[in-house]
Amino acid sequence: MKRNPKDLDAAHGKMTRRALFLGGLQLAFAGGLAARMRYLQVDQADEFRLLAEENRINIRLLPPARGQIFDRNGLIVAQNSPSYRITVVPEDAGDVEAVIAKLSSLVPLDPEDLERARTEMRRSPPFLPITLADQIGWEDISKVAVNAPALPGVTPEVGLTRVYPQLDDFAHVVGYVGPVSDYDLSKMEDPEPVLMIPRFQIGKVGFEARREDVLRGKAGAKRVEVNATGRVMRELDRREGISGADMQLTIDAELQNYVQARLGRESAAAVVIDCEDGDIRAICSSPSFDPNLFVRGISVADYRMLTEDKYRPLSNKTVQGTYPPGSTFKMITALAALENGVIGPEETVWCPGYLKVAGRRFHCWKRAGHGHVDLNTSLKRSCDVYYYDVAIKTGIDKISEMANMFGLGIKHELPMSAVAQGITPTKDWKASSYGKDWLIGDTANSSIGQGYMLASPLQLAVMTARIATGRSVTPRLLKSLDGVEQPSGAGEPLAVSGNSLRMVRRGMHSVSNDRRGTAYRSRIIGDGMQMAGKTGTSQVRNITAAERAAGVIRNEDLPWERRDHALFVCFAPYDKPKYAVAVVVEHGGGGSKAAAPVARDVLLQALYNGTPPLEAYPNADRSRIKAQQERLERERVKRPLGSRSSRA
């Protein structure tokens, strides 16, 4: 069939218009592509030259700000301070030694720091920044910044470092931080990447180490663009880290400061516990040290001075040190005997100066003896024979059970390093520890806090708080975490009769307030402030029969390390206990002479929340106490108490 010519012409016209339309679209696309290529290659040439093949993107970790630590009143105990430092990224520097040589011509570099940096380079990935100099001045930082183009891979930085403004007052409590070491990393199964940053600081000992998990925070990161020489061209984006949690301790910094000053250079320890809630108001080990020395790595000379000191300033005697509690343990023996019906308050024991046990004489501290002694007198005058007698009748297992109830032989879980459990021996304990049978003489020794019996000053303070209140007071060191109050340590009533506790408290009251009491000279006479306490003297050497026959050598005539330990525990006010205190003076001699005056002064400082009035002291002591208060005030002025924070 023939097609109409007019139809063919119409179809041809339609095809021509379609072709023109498609051609126009192609031309527009090509034009747009050409324009885009010109924009990218000409207009944006400089921008994309930075992203050329020799440039690359680095991801760098941002250390988080460490949580700060405050005392119970908001005083800063551990804080972060800006620190100027110079770092180098080895893979960006190229010839690292050449770069270090150039840098040395601009700013002084410590040879020890450089050697430490080279060691870090060998153990760290090449993309991590290595610190070449820390804690440098603004002038040196400026020199490095100006000469940055000639120092590939080198960056002047502002970081944070830990500072302890209270110096030695909190050294044994808070501890200190230091750079992450290979040893630290070896103890971790899967270390966080942030720990690989050279000289990143983590807690080493004390509260800093025990609460590292929440103090450290979470690392942030930044993406930076660097060129072939390692110079940072720009920062592309940044994700800030999460700061560590702020912590508030139960300790009162001003009381802590006083106690540390009062202990002076003695090798000693003191603990103050709030009887109402278990808060540790002060916990001091003497002598102490400046924790700031350890933050960036202590010098060999400084470390040797600390380790060679016979008074062991690095040791935390409050929780780590364990001592025979001596006569401060007699309250436990008395409670065990009372609760088991072995004695009554009026029953007496004859003390001729010794008790024969299995053919051996166990001596009383008073050679002539005390005569007929009841419970009150046994505590007031600290008669040893009374406790030998009642302990043998009670048995060591029941005595140790009572000791555990009052916090001895128990490891109190505080966020401090090396908290000791102490020892409250039993028959089974000796069999498993020494493979020997328990002897009746072991019971006699244990009854007066000697033999195998060991306790820390913290445990003795807990024991005293529980005697004072009749509750299982539990020590608390952390008051709040990021503003959230932590559980109280007030405790529940103990399974001990009120009558037994009252009899023991009455005996402790006589120790300090009866003229024949062993601590009468250290009494408190302030209205409503009377103190109840107990002296203790624990031997660190055996006294031979020959020495006893010739006369026991006085502590003053012995070398320091062979002298007895001096102890004192106390609480006040007697009628409504507020604070309990334990003091141990290593090789201090008699507890009544060396430890009781310290404990009395500390207790008064806590009760009055500051310097107590002279009227709280006996008349005969007031001139001496006034001079002592003035001296301590002068010494304490030198200790910076810092500023308070509204966050705590």
UniProtKB/TrEMBL annotation:
EC top class, as a word: hydrolase
A Pfam family of this chain: Transpeptidase
Source taxon at top rank: Bacteria
Bias kind Basic and acidic residues: ranges: 621-638
Domain Penicillin-binding protein transpeptidase, residue spans: 269-603
The protein's Enzyme Commission number: 3.4.16.4
Biased composition (Basic residues): 639-648
Main localization category: membrane
Bilayer disposition of the protein: Single-pass membrane protein
Localization of this protein: Cell membrane; Membrane
Sections of the chain in a coiled coil: none
Positions of the Penicillin-binding protein dimerisation domain: 63-236
Molecular functions per Gene Ontology: serine-type D-Ala-D-Ala carboxypeptidase activity
UniProt-annotated stretches for the region Disordered: 615-648
Annotated protein name in UniProt: Penicillin-binding protein 2
Organism: Leisingera aquaemixtae
